[in-house]
Amino acid sequence: MYDYIKGKITEVHPEYVTLECRDIGYKLQTPNPFAFHVDEEMIKVYTHLHVRDDVHSLIGFQSIRQRQLFEKLITVSGIGPKGALAILANGIPQQVAEAIEREDEKFLVQFPGVGKKTARQMILDLKGKLDHLFGDLFEPNEAPSLASNDALEEAMLALQALGYSERELKRIETTLQQQEMTTEAYMKEALRLLVKQS
Questions:
Q1: Architecture field, domain 64-133
Q2: Please, what CATH class does the domain formed by 4-61 belong to?
Q3: What is the pLDDT of residue 85?
Q4: Residues forming a β-bridge with 43
């Protein structure tokens, strides 16, 4: 229905961003809300409208390829929009595609909500169908804003929204507290550590 919306990011929350276009604020769920920044600059966000029963969700992506991978993932039985967003949020979509090609179930079950059965289904449904998505699926980010004391807390909230448990996050929080970064950088580092520890 909507291919993309051009506007300004006016709000960033752990679960969504608000994109204002012609005095309308569109609530967009995204893989990593903190990849976006509140700014006066106009940006283009590619969208996917997900309709289920009485729920209509508008999901935003920084690139067409990112959206294409999302749309492939939600065709797999057992993976809904939330699960697909959690997989995309790790920042390494090429590794996901390569794991599917290698039939690496151990790698795939590291994501929230992905058990052995779902990992096997991902391989069965998507193996050989992701070649055209290889490459840089994420647009380069603008210069990050200065990190604040709230940055780590925001990152933890966003990771909880993606389905990671408090127990999993507590294991990496001490390591993250030793560094001073932006929320987005904390998200990327946290996801790297979570994948490594699984």
A1: Orthogonal Bundle (1.10)
A2: mainly beta
A3: 93
A4: 7
Within 80-165, residue ranges assigned H as helices are: 81-88, 93-102, 105-108, 116-126, 151-161
Strand 43-52 relative to strand 4-12, pairing = antiparallel
Could you report the per-residue pLDDT of 132-150, keeping only the tens digit for each? Answer: 665 433 344 433 333 344 7
- C-alpha 13/C-alpha 17 separation (Å) is 6
b (16+ CB within 10 A) / e for 27-36? ebbbbbbbbb
Residue numbers in the chain where pLDDT is lower than 50: 135-149
Whole-model pTM: value is: 0.66
Geometric angle at alpha carbon 23, from 18 and 26, rounded to 5°: 30
- Residue 198: the pLDDT is 62
